[in-house]
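Project channel, design review

CF: Before we commit to the Acidicapsa dinghuensis constructs, I'd like one complete example in the thread so the newer folks can see what an input/output pair looks like. Taking Beta-xylosidase.
RD: sounds good, go ahead.
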Amino acid sequence: MLRKIKLIVVFGLACFSAGAGLAQRPVAIRVEAGHTIGPYDRIWTYFGADEPNYTYAPNGQKLLRELGELSPAPVYFRTHNLFTTGDGDGSLKWGSTNVYTEKADGTPVYNWTITDRIFDAFAAAHVRPLVEIGFMPEALSTHPEPYRHTFPKGDIFTGWTYPPKDYAKWGALVRAYAEHMKQRYGSAVDGWLWEVWNEPDIPYWYGTAEEYDRLYDVTSAAIREALPNAKIGGPESTGVASSHAETFLRQFLEHCAHGKNAATGATGAPLDFISFHPKGRPSTVDGHVRMDIGFQLRAVERGMKVVASYPEWKNTPIILGENDPEGCAACQGAANGYRNGALYGVSEAEVMARIAELARRYDVHVQGTVTWAFEFENQPYFAGFRELATNGVDKPVLNVFRMMGMLGGEQVQVESSGALSLDDMLQGDATGAGDIDAIATRQGNEVSILVWNYADDDVLAPDPRVTLKIAGLGNGSVQEEEFRMDKNHSNAYTVWQSMGSPAQPTPEQQKKFEEAGGLERISAPHAMQIQEGNAAVEITLPRQGVTLIRLSR
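CF: and here is what came back for Beta-xylosidase:
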């Protein structure tokens, strides 16, 4: 029996298909607060983006601070282009730091000015770097010209994607970089993560698999020379959705276990975590967005099966280095409009819970899932990019992460009459009545419950009536208060639209948008009775909404 209790109840919704003539259906969810099933892991506290230079822009610094405040567990940030040559100018899918150039005689020149601005922004926000070593400096590239791409026009896989022409110079650069980080940030680097390159199974790496293995060996050896206790991993390959991707991941794991190390001559290479990228596949059907979480989850499952098949690596942590509803944060289009509203956030809640369920099924350890979304500078408001904020205004998805940040401690047993099975989700059966399911945690005298209603089809449907019963709370009364994120609450996008979608908001409008981007409380604390250790909450939930109910003594 709990003497003091604080109860947080979170409800999440997305639209499901109304084409089948669905009627409003009652859903019963039962939470056994006294029945723990294991620790709750905050696997979602990882974020990232292509564009490193936006991290120290004013809007980027604001958003980094908000990410650092999401959870008591460490929040990590991963970014591309930390070694890319340039003047620090950012654009879509591009960034640069100019850490390496050469004099006319080939003498290396190191410059940490821009990279210091990036990592200083991380430190100020209390965000830990997941340091991605890449991409190839122009002076070291075996095929340097053309170097900078012009996305969305032309080929993005230009001179920065090629192997180094001199592995000794590359290794020296990596070692100097790691040594500089240790000198500048001290013992804080002990909590960082390090990795080698990005998606080397596709043209992000214009080399062979064997050449990537060599790059990995040289890079990891250089990092360990400077930081003997550094946690290093990879290969950050694409999702194991094809035979080629699986073949690449398997050869890499074989190399790290049994191959000859190109840097040390020893057998194998350090591998403290294994990373790959599962992505979804949304489309437009009959004028509405149809998500495809099943495709995304099947990529997660295939990667887990690969890892679990190796006795050497079965217990090695997995990081889903880019875990997203689709593949291009900087792309726009009709199927990507969901990113502005509530559906993006609800899909994140669904996916995170299902990944944890898959990890339990295959007995593997998922350390983190990187949401590849941040913010874009010098772009229109709510332009449809996959981002957490736009022009300093938080999008609804960020409020779902805020709610997930309220979970913690031990996970407890939950049963829902509206839930789809994991196999249903894997098979893509989330286009009908949807999935109304929940996870719950208990931490000391606090119980938190995250409930979502998800469907792939983003169309209108009747609101389900959800009755939530929580057992094991003790007796007496509690104080109840409610927060909400839906179309009309905690949703700056709707407010922006209601004010005419201004391209250049006034300062007063900007302030209103920023206020609307926060998590809104819609019910002040009021008394609620608990009888025979049970609490009951009944609510009719709006489409594409998230409600947080907090009960506390």
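RD: helpful, thanks. The chain has two domains: 6-40+409-552, 46-404.
CF: The radius of gyration is 24 Å.
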